[in-house]
């Protein structure tokens, strides 16, 4: 049994071998704990789905990667024969069936993120689809679209003295307005970008419909990981240009609202676990509307106290890093 604690959400993770448990929980290694009271249990037996023992259920809906069968007491998500996840709603327990390690790693990771998303929504916390670093006592949040280069920029910035990683993909805002560290792993499609990182920190997953991706353990950055909750937040909306130099300019807060709505309130780019979060009843629709209101309130509280800027990003990674780091240092000196 391995316990992970994601800012208060304790998950009991079980597999038939310690090696499989370690593989599954590897992205959450910074959040492993020795004790705690689990809210959820995830079991991964390492065996194929027992389709013949499943109840006769009608499909509720489907996504590009799975078909969802929903009933009062359980929910079964079938990944087109590659594996299946069974949720026991009464016991808050999940079982992930499958034999392919690539599938098990991806399914486990996405399920944990889905459960953490539920937890955040229940507790007034807000995930932001952004790269975030800190410099001294300031958190710098830079939302970018999927594939926009968040990890590449983060790895470049961490080469600079004094900068620390909060998250390369989804920092978390707590209900009191502080930004919480949430470093899991960094991913890249181009293995050459991480060729100088020792092999013990690198692994690869052949993801369901997205292909092979290479990952670096967050632990690789060691002392360059931010461990504190930070209240001084600088929100920097990013946009790319095909030609021209990078630059950063102050903008009024009203110009950030669109980015906040996309990257935090709706959370485009964040894994939301549609197969676990959505249903088709009016009650579910009303509940999700309530969630959006809570997220809007959290986003507004952050925006009210944050400083806001726009970062025009060029194709030159080194120049982007230079401009961003110079800008952040100037904030500290002001």
Strand order of the largest sheet: 3-1-2-4-9-8-7-6-5
Number of helices: 7
- Rounded to the nearest angstrom, the distance between the terminal CA atoms is 49 Å
Structural class: alpha+beta
* Mean pLDDT figure: 90
Q: Summarize the main sheet.
A: 9 strands, mixed
Strands, count:
21
Strand content: 25-35%
- Topology as a string of helices (H) and strands (E): EEHEEEEEEEHEEEHEEEEEEEEHHHEH
How large, in whole angstroms, is the Cα Rg? 20 Å
Determine the fraction of residues in helical runs and give it as a percent range.
Answer: 25-40%
User: What is the domain tally?
Assistant: 2
Shape: globular
Unreliable spans: 277-283
């Amino acid at each position: 049994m391995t316990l992970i604690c994601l800012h208060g959400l304790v998950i009991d993770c079980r597999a038939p071998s310690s090696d499989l448990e370690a593989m599954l929980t590897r992205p959450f290694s910074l959040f492993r704990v020795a004790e705690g009271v689990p809210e959820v249990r995830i079991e991964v037996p390492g065996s194929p789905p027992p389709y013949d023992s499943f109840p006769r259920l009608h499909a509720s809906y489907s996504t590009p990667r799975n078909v969802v069968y929903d009933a009062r007491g359980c929910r079964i998500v079938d990944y087109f024969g590659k594996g299946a996840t069974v949720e026991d709603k009464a016991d808050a327990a999940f079982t992930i069936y499958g034999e392919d390690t690539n599938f098990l790693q991806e399914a486990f990771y996405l399920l944990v993120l889905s459960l953490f998303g539920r937890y955040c929504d229940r507790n007034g916390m807000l995930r932001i689809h952004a790269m975030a670093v800190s410099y001294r006592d300031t958190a710098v949040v830079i939302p970018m679209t999927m594939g926009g280069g968040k990890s590449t920029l983060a790895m470049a910035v961490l080469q600079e003295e004094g900068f620390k990683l909060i998250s390369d993909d989804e920092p978390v805002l707590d209900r009191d307005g502080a930004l919480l560290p949430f470093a899991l792993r960094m991913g890249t499609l181009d293995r050459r970008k991480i060729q100088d990182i020792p092999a013990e920190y690198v692994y690869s997953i052949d993801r369901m419909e997205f292909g092979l991706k290479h990952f670096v353990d967050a632990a690789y950055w060691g002392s360059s990981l931010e461990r504190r909750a930070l209240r001084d937040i600088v929100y920097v909306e990013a946009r790319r240009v095909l030609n021209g130099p990078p630059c950063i300019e102050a903008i009024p807060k009203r110009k950030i609202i669109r980015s906040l709505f996309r990257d935090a309130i709706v959370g485009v780019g964040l894994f939301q676990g549609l197969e676990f979060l959505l249903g088709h009843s009016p009650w579910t629709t009303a509940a999700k509307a309530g969630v959006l209101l809570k997220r809007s309130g959290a986003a507004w509280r952050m925006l009210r106290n944050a400083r806001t800027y726009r970062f025009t990003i060029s194709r030159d990674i080194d120049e982007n890093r230079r401009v961003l780091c110079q800008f952040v240092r100037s904030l500290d000196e002001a």
